[in-house]
Design brief:
The chain is α+β, with helices and mostly antiparallel strands. Helix content is about 30%, strand content about 30%. The relative contact order is 0.28.
């Protein structure tokens, strides 16, 4: 599967691709937009605090009917997407291990690309009244993260 960011220096970057992860595409998109541009250590601290329900993730695109959260700067709506945070935290650990394997300094890694989009759809049906059935599909998520030594 090709990455959406193509022109990168392979000697200074490390990347990871999580395919068909069982997390919400909307939650993972908001997390990726938040961690993009951060140092990898700061992003890991943020996601660990989100898993412990201490620090919210700002929801800037999917924010309808999302309440205000204390601790957000420059934005009002936020949530604590625990399941998606755990999965993306695991991917951050993997990309850090990939960078160390390539000989990059893990304390100088910066996330230059993080994106999440819809993956495979698992079809399902929900029984309804009078013998009918409505589709009840389950969406999986693809996540790609690229870090660069700076």
């Amino acid at each position: 599967m090709p990455y959406s960011l193509t022109q990168i220096d392979e000697t200074k970057t490390a990347k990871v691709y999580g395919k068909n992860i069982n997390i919400s595409p909307k939650h993972s998109r908001e997390i990726c937009n938040t961690i993009k541009g951060m140092k990898i250590e700061r992003a890991k601290e943020l996601l660990e605090a989100t898993v412990k329900i201490e620090k919210p993730i700002p929801f800037k695109r999917h924010y309808k009917k999302v309440g205000h959260k204390k601790g957000l700067s420059k934005w009002f709506a936020g949530r604590y997407p625990v399941k998606a945070s755990k999965s993306i935290l695991k991917l951050l650990n993997e990309v850090e291990a990939n960078a160390e394997y390539k000989g990059l300094n893990s304390s100088r890694l910066k996330i230059i690309h993080a994106s999440a989009y819809k993956g495979r759809v698992i079809p399902g049906f929900m029984p309804r009244a009078f013998g009918r059935a409505s589709p009840y599909n389950h969406e999986l998520t693809n996540v790609e993260i690229i870090v660069e030594e700076r």
